[in-house]
Structure to design on (536 residues):
């Protein structure tokens, strides 16, 4: 298993998988196969893939621990960057077709529509994470500070779910589904944190530092 | 204006587009009646997916309407594959898939309440009430998209006058057919069923309010509200109730489905108005299906000349 996870080809395969939704959209644009409302199709598809990639990214740490597969960490940065890639496309479908690239109209809309405000907040929160995703930036910031900064993905994911919940008209099944996934992934961390705190106290009592964990 | 004698037209007279696909008529033509037909129909249902039986039938001799717009029409394919019909699912693509087996015949529309002659109309009877017109209307959804559709029908006022409303009648309530067995997706929609809508009597009597039995020269596809629906072009799309089974005259303002769901977002009047935003989004613009960029929304969806006077002196923000 480990050999598969650390193989360069696995990374390449996952990269291609992550690009497939994008490829599908490009293919559909070429074939004009985007249904009656192409802009909405692109907007919804990119929004859907953003929330999915945020969930994938947030699942890495729990899966590493639960499945005892620490090498899964090799894919986390890529998944997070794909979330950012799709939210950027998503944002472009809004800035372009919806707002006609009119920045002042966009700001007004962002300020006025709560569902846009939280979506925009999520997007803005993800920008520094994408920029500081490189190894160089981890070194520059130091592990602790980098980790703290990158915890804002929790807030971004929650904002993404609220954004989705607020924009649907009355059928809330899908936003609740993603809300449940994000909730479980965050609660797991909370539980883990309490658990670690408990064991850290125990470890202190036996005069031994618990080893710092590089993941969040 | 359009005072012509109603043609003697029945549902069965309309030229079938694909007779060979219409198993019900096929059976009738073969003289397979009674028990044989029932048994045969059951077998056919098993052997032949019923959707093939729902092929649309064509109307002929439609009268052109002066209310029609000359704007570019959307395609039948777009208008029948991008639908809000929550009984058949809440995604735009759901109704086209889930409504194919919707049983729209036999069908009656019950007209009741504050009228002298309450009665039921079959679809055949409705088709005989007035000459059928083609009316090309703009249709603006509350979700900021719009379409241009050649509907078929006649003014609802024809039917309303026929039943003679009493002086107490001030509102007209409409109801959509509901059958959870045929509409299993409805329970996930988040709104209450049966779907209900309503108009003030003067709105219902406005000649623009269309009692609609078809579009694009044909009978309505099930996902577009077959066999008979309303089209009220100056109001947001959800006011144009689909697959209608009841029309009720009453003294009080009737409850309406989306208003019950969220009264701050969906008012009773729901006139298209770029100056009154939906709490969650602006109504100033809309996207015509098939276009990339948005266009400005026009008050009363551009039908102000015909309808604005009905709202003189009313605060359109308060009565949104
Ligand atoms: C992490 C950030 C974001 C996530 C997770 C996200 C997710 C989503 C999802 C899941 C949908 C609905 C897709 C569907 O119905 O299938 C959606 C729709 C939408 N999003 Fe986002 N989004 C984000 C950021 C943004 C931003 C930054 C903007 C614009 C400033 C934006 C504007 C929109 C718009 C306009 C819609 C369509 C609403 C409608 O159809 O009425 N989103 N988004």
């Amino acid at each position: 298993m480990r050999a598969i996870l650390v193989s360069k080809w696995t990374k390449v395969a996952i990269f291609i998988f992550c690009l497939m939704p994008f490829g599908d959209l490009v293919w559909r644009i070429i074939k004009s196969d985007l249904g009656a409302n192409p802009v909405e199709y692109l907007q919804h598809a990119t929004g859907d893939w953003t929330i999915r990639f945020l969930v994938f990214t947030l699942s890495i740490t729990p899966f590493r621990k639960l499945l005892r597969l620490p090498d899964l960490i090799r894919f986390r940065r890529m998944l997070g960057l794909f979330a950012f890639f799709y939210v950027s496309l998503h944002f472009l479908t809004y800035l372009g077709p919806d707002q006609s690239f009119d920045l002042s109209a966009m700001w007004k809309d962002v300020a006025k529509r709560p569902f846009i405000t939280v979506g925009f907040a999520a997007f803005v929160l993800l920008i520094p994470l994408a920029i500081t995703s490189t190894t160089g930036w981890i070194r520059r910031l130091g592990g602790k500070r980098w980790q703290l900064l990158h915890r804002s993905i929790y807030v971004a994911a929650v904002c993404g779910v609220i954004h989705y919940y607020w924009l649907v008209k009355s059928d809330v099944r899908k936003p609740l589904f993603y809300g449940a996934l994000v909730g479980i992934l965050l609660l797991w961390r909370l539980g883990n944190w309490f658990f670690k705190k408990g064991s850290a106290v125990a470890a202190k009592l036996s005069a031994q530092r618990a080893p710092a964990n590089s993941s969040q | 204006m359009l005072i012509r004698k109603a043609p003697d037209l029945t549902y069965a007279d309309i030229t079938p587009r694909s007779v060979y696909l219409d198993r019900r008529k096929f059976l009738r033509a073969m003289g397979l009646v009674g028990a044989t037909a029932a048994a045969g129909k059951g077998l056919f249902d098993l052997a032949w997916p019923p959707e093939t039986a729902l092929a649309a039938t064509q109307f002929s001799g439609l009268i052109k309407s002066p209310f029609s717009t000359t704007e570019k029409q959307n395609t039948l394919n777009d208008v029948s594959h991008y639908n809000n019909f929550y009984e058949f699912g809440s995604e735009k693509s759901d109704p086209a898939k889930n409504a194919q087996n919707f049983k729209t015949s036999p069908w009656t529309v019950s007209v009741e309440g504050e009228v002298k002659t309450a009665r039921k109309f079959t679809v055949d009877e409705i088709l005989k009430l007035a000459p059928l017109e083609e009316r090309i209307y703009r249709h603006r959804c509350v979700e900021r998209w719009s379409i241009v559709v050649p509907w078929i029908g006649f003014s609802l006022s024809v039917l309303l006058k026929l039943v003679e409303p009493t002086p107490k009648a001030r509102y007209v309530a409409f109801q959509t057919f509901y059958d959870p067995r045929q509409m299993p997706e409805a329970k996930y929609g988040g709104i209450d069923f049966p779907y209900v809508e309503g108009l003030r009597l003067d709105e219902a009597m406005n000649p623009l309010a269309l009692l609609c039995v078809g579009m694009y020269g044909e009978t309505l596809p099930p996902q577009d509200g077959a066999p008979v629906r309303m089209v009220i072009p100056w109001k947001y799309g959800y006011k144009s109730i689909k697959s209608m089974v009841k029309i009720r005259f009453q003294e009080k303002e009737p409850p309406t489905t989306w208003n019950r769901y969220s009264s701050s977002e969906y008012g009773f009047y729901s006139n298209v108005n770029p100056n009154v935003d939906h709490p969650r989004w602006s109504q100033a613009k809309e996207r015509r299906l098939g276009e990339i960029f948005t266009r400005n929304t026009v008050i009363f969806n551009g039908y102000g000349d015909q309808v604005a006077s009905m709202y003189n002196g009313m605060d359109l923000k308060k009565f949104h």
